């Protein structure tokens, strides 16, 4: 089969590797769509410590079951129609947890000490076919396309973020960064009971999109934003991963409010916050990492029409154009770029 | 290796039989059982052959509160685990259903739970279990304490569902094993006032010894006459009146957790009282993600389980162990120690 392969950091090619066969508890998926994430850039650049090269990246994927291992259960997920049989259309939750470390055993699987993931430590979805554990497959309703289904993974990260943030209805929000994740978080906030949602980004095209998706205010300058919301915001979410942007955003947290770090900074990055403000204004600072019991809810949010997928799915390219697609993502062109490995 | 088992054939019919030693499959461990606690549900199956829709239709090995030592491992398990002393979490969920994938594996409809028909339990010498359901016991914890991590988990889960906070006043109705374990957890979590009710003076005496600040014998004094104002109710008796009176003893915004199983399908609740005070009422079904924390609470002596153990029996004496509680209410927890 054809696959996008990263042999070593910086060495990216589309080549031919052997077709996968399923282990007893696995399915083989013919990939319908697979989204490119910032993590894929880190894998290509070699600054992701978990990766085992060579690797086929791709963890935002959906497709059709074409082979079923000998020990796969009859039904998975909800209801009697969730059969992972040949021909079933599925989305894949890519995170693989060990099940026996302290964090797995206390209900924090996303913090697993032996964390591994499809498209990071094992071959992923930028290929014609991929094997996945059946327990990670979610059977899709008819009304979701593979491209929409490949968006479930990023939406499930945002849903976990909202579960962690636990906002009150009527809260005001500031979302810093209007890329894919910012635009998804914006939609969850607007449709989840926020009273006013502001979005900050330097890219005015992205801000236009944010306005179309229901942002009440958009700005390129945080000081101007604070002239309009004098007391700041109940919930401020950083989706940039840039320490300086976070320091600026922290100034916009209302007294008693929450500041969530959602964007991925480099492990070496440091930011400077006022401990006095955290104390005196009773500010909660929290993080949100990947997916935790949020994949099913994300699927339901998309199939229920709560998430506008069209606004986010801007680009789809064939597998052979993988390198060009990575470069587009690097330059910040469009919003979500996906690969359609089987045309 | 010989594998003896105490097998329930019918109510009041337990036979000691030899069974084949099970082989650990991939990612499983073979455990030699060292201690098994007797639970009220074991006694119920022994007395009645069923609990609700769970019916003993074929010979069944009871017992689900167990600890032991790993003596062999299946494919894919680190051989270094052989010799490890472990507590066994006895309910194996399927891991693929909606409940499992939502983090509520205790509600998995396909769970395979020890000693619940038709899944055999731990009144035997050897069992196999997926390795991640075998939890390493620290050296300072005994095999018997390891076995009681299971009922302790029930108490811990109840207190978690109640969102119990330090300095809370907790009302525990029913001073049997689950009630006293809930009491131990509530104390460890910082409850400062704990009122316990029961109809047995011996059990209330035990509750006082274990730290209850007040006990009420509700056979003599109705709870309503005592004037309890609790933040949390943990109902451990399964008695309808205990649930009703317990809810009526809650402060506004209190939490009621129904742990005890009621004999009937339906019970009444004081609805307008519940509405006017915005009381939260929930049930619990077993527990999830409690083992690591329960072991830590015992290992650090925040919870001392030893006073709860009131009798020891060999595997051949399993039937006597199952009868012990009925014969004497002062018996809290009987332990079967297979050889």
Mind explaining what this structure looks like?
The complex is a heterodimer of chains A (343) and B (339). Chain A contains eleven helices and 17 strands. Chain A is α/β, with parallel strands linked by helices and 343 residues long. In chain A, helix 9 (275-280) links the parallel strand 14 and strand 15. In chain A, helix 4 (152-165) packs across helix 5 and helix 4 (152-165) crosses helix 10 (295-303). In chain B, the strands form five sheets. In chain B, strands 3, 7, 8, 11, 12, 19 and 20 form a seven-stranded mixed beta sheet that branches. In chain B, strands 15-14-13-16-17-18 form a six-stranded parallel beta sheet, with helices on both faces. In chain B, strands 2-1-6 form a three-stranded antiparallel beta sheet, covered by helices on one side. In chain B, helix 7 links the parallel strand 17 (250-258) and strand 18. Chain B is globular and about 60 Å long. Chain B has helices spanning 40-48, 143-147, 149-161, 177-188, 201-209, 240-247, 271-276, 291-299, 318-327; strands spanning 3-10, 13-19, 28-37, 50-51, 54-55, 60-61, 65-73, 85-88, 91-92, 112-113, 126-130, 134-136, 169-173, 193-198, 214-217, 230-235, 250-258, 280-283, 309-314, 333-337. The interface between A and B is medium-sized, with 20 and 16 residues.
């Amino acid at each position: 089969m054809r696959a996008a392969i990263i042999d070593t950091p910086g060495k990216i090619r589309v080549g031919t590797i052997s077709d996968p066969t399923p282990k007893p508890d696995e399915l083989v998926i013919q990939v319908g769509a697979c989204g490119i994430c910032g993590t894929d850039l880190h894998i290509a650049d070699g600054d992701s410590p978990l990766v085992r090269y060579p690797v086929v990246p791709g963890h935002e994927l959906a497709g059709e079951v074409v082979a079923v291992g000998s020990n796969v259960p009859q039904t998975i997920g909800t209801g009697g129609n969730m059969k992972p049989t040949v021909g079933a259309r599925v989305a894949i939750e890519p995170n693989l947890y060990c099940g026996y470390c302290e964090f797995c055993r206390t209900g924090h699987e996303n913090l697993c000490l032996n964390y591994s993931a499809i498209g990071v430590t094992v071959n992923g979805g930028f290929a014609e076919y991929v094997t996945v554990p059946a327990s990670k497959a979610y059977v899709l309703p008819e009304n979701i396309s593979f491209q929409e289904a490949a968006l479930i993974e990023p939406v499930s990260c945002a849903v976990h973020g909202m579960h962690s943030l636990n906002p009150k209805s009527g809260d005001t929000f500031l979302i810093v960064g209007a890329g894919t994740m910012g635009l998804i978080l914006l939609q969850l906030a607007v449709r989840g009971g926020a009273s006013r949602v502001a979005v900050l980004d330097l890219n005015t095209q992205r801000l236009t999109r944010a306005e179309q998706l229901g942002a009440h205010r958009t700005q390129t300058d945080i000081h101007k934003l604070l002239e309009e919301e004098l007391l700041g915001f109940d919930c401020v979410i950083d989706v940039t991963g840039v320490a300086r942007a976070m320091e600026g955003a922290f100034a916009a947290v209302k007294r008693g409010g929450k500041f969530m770090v959602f964007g991925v900074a480099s492990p070496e990055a440091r930011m400077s916050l006022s401990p006095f403000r955290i104390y005196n204004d009773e500010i909660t600072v929290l993080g949100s990492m990947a997916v935790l019991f949020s994949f099913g809810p994300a699927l339901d949010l998309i199939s229920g029409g709560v998430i506008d997928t069209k606004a986010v799915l801007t680009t789809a390219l064939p597998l052979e154009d993988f390198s060009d697609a990575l470069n587009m993502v690097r330059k910040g062109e469009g919003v979500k770029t996906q690969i359609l490995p089987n045309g | 290796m010989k594998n003896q088992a105490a097998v329930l054939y019918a109510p009041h019919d337990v036979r000691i039989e030899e069974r084949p030693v099970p082989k650990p499959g991939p990612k499983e461990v073979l455990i030699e059982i060292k201690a098994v606690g007797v639970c009220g549900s074991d006694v119920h199956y022994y007395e009645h052959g069923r609990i609700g829709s769970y019916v003993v239709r074929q010979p069944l090995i009871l017992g689900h509160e167990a600890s032991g030592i790993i003596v062999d491992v299946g494919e894919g398990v680190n051989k270094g685990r052989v010799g490890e002393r472990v507590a066994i979490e006895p309910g194996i969920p399927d891991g693929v259903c909606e409940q499992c994938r939502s983090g509520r594996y205790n509600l998995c409809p396909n769970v395979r739970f020890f000693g619940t028909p038709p899944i055999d339990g731990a009144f035997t010498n050897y069992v196999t279990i997926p390795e991640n359901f075998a939890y390493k016991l620290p050296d300072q914890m005994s095999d018997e304490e390891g076995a009681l991590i299971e009922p302790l988990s029930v108490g811990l889960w109840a207190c978690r569902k109640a969102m119990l906070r330090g300095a809370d006043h907790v009302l525990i109705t029913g001073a049997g094993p689950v009630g006293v374990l809930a009491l131990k957890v509530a104390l460890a979590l910082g409850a400062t006032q704990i009122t316990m009710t029961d109809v047995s003076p011996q059990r209330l005496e035990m509750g006082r010894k274990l730290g209850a600040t007040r006990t009420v014998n509700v056979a003599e004094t109705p709870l309503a006459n005592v004037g309890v104002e609790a933040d949390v109710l943990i109902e451990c008796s399964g008695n309808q009146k205990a649930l009703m009176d317990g809810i009526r003893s809650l402060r506004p915004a209190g939490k009621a957790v129904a742990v005890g199983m009621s004999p009937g399908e339906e019970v009444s609740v004081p609805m307008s009282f519940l509405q006017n005070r915005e009381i939260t009422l929930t049930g619990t079904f077993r527990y999830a993600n409690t083992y690591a924390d329960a072991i830590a609470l015992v290992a650090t002596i925040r919870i001392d389980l030893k006073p709860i153990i009131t009798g020891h029996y060999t595997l051949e004496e399993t039937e006597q162990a199952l009868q012990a509680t009925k014969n004497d209410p002062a018996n809290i927890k009987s332990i079967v120690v297979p050889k």
